Amino acid sequence: MDPFKTIPEQLSVLEKALRGPQWDAETLDNLRALMARVDSARLDALRTEHAEAMRTADPASGYKYLDVAYFTLLKLLLARELGLDRGPPRRILDIGTAGGHFPFVCRHFGHDVVAIDVENPLYEGITACLGVQRTIARVEPYRPLPDLGGRFDLITVCNTTFNERGDPPVYWTPAEWQFLLDDLVANHLRYPGELYVKLNKEIKRLAYNRDVLAMANRNAAKVGRWRGVIRMNVAAPRVIRL
Length: 242
Description:
The protein is built from nine helices and nine strands. It is an alpha/beta fold.
């Protein structure tokens, strides 16, 4: 992962890495097709604009998303996990979209995506290079999301940071997560529909929040404890229990 590299350089690195037997040709073909759609000149200008800050920034900072080939590959793998590379078009809500790599991939497979996040000039620059539109909407504890133009077949919430506040960070309680999930199921999800949540590890614990994962498990979600993943299939209106 190197945000200083150009698109051809990023792609060259990944093409070498994807030659192993665990990778299929279709993944690489999709990645090449997606990289051909990136506004490379605009991305190079964005990289130049932020070059000085990138040299001193934490490797985990948002500048990493300028490596659009790498993060597009990650979202290609997520799309495959969710079955989005096959089947009919779906309407998707991507919460906390950051640089918009997931909507970029979903659109490639024919899906309609609403991508929401807070204002961030860097992320807005990256999404512009990918041709992705961001909707500004903040996720806050105990506050419903606004109307986003209808319901969705799939709602994704990946590598969350909105559930952190303060320094050192304090993380959302299970009750705060319950409110968000309940709002999504009641007001934004079609039936049948699916919620996909990928937590970030909490710094203090160096682990995913076990209480949140346990709450999801009690609500009949499929929980990947080692990856911090929650998948909840919802066939009809229901209330999320704490």
